[in-house]
Amino acid sequence: MSVWDESGIVPSALDKASGEQRSGRFPAFVQRYSPHFDARPAGETVSLAVLHFISLPAGDFSGEDVERLFLGTLDASRPGYESLAGLRVSSHFFIRRTGEVRQYVDVFDRAWHAGLSNFRGRDACNDFSVGIELEGTEAVPFEDAQYEALEALLRLLSAHLPIRWVTGHEFIAPGRKIDPGPYFDWARVRAFLPEGVALAIAPEDCDREMIERRRRLLERQ
Q: Where in the cell is it found (predicted)?
């Protein structure tokens, strides 16, 4: 099935609060199942899409170690991977260099992609965002196929979720993260954003003081 197929999303788990059937997985994309997720806060809506880059090893786009990281099966004893030992992270979606899109977490669940973050005065961006990882680094441009897949994904997400903004990890965790980085074409993304969705990539879109207060609080716990 093409990533352009907008046939909707497939049934997922029952909503614990209402008992109604949820839908949070898109049949247009390759389905994988990360164990690294939990429930969003009760009543939370998804208003933000956060873009990242990732590759393992950095700059190597040929293997499956990103998937192993998200699935919790990565061998962290390998040279260069020591810092990843015990790391439990995930993203809702991963866009490979070929444009293939893989989904790891139901969009109604909380993936663990943003970490310590703030968006327009709200901490903990994982609570209200969808995480989208693009295979890449800060040193190379992204592929046309990835932008085409991202456009299709954002259109599908905005048709089913109240997404209002698209941002980058670097803008919600400044000084700690740099992705999607200097080679990411924000102007190209702005041109294909769905109606009603805007970019949020200004310095004032993050409250650094709130992040610092949250960091100090976490250190005391």
A: Cytoplasm
Q: In which residue are the tokens 């699935």 written?
A: 71
Q: Determine contact, residues 149/103, Cβ cutoff 8 Å.
A: no
The residue type at 182: P
Predicted TM-score (pTM) of the model is: 0.90
CA geometry: angle 57, 60, 62, nearest 5 deg: 115
Contact 3, 101 (CB under 8 A): yes
Cβ neighbours of residue 18 closer than 8 Å, sequence gap 6 or more: none
Q: Give the pLDDT of residue 5.
A: 35
CB neighbour list of residue 19: distance below 8 Å, 6 or more residues apart: none
CA 110 – CA 127 distance, rounded (Å) = 6
Query: pLDDT category, 16, cuts 50, 70, 90?
Result: very low
Is 204 noted as a catalytic residue in this protein?
no
User: What is d(CA 209, CA 216) in angstroms, rounded to the nearest whole number?
Assistant: 11
Residue, of 201 and 19, whose pLDDT is higher:
201
Q: State both tokens at 97.
A: 């260099």
Question: Quick one: 10-220 is in which CATH superfamily?
Answer: Peptidoglycan recognition protein-like (3.40.80.10)
Neighbours of 140 (CB within 10 A): 14
Amino acid at 58: A
Q: Which tokens go with 1? A: 């099935």
Q: How confident is residue 7, by pLDDT bands cut at 50, 70 and 90?
A: very low
Residue matched to tokens 């999607």: 180
Q: Among the options 6, 20, 100, 133, which is catalytic?
A: 133
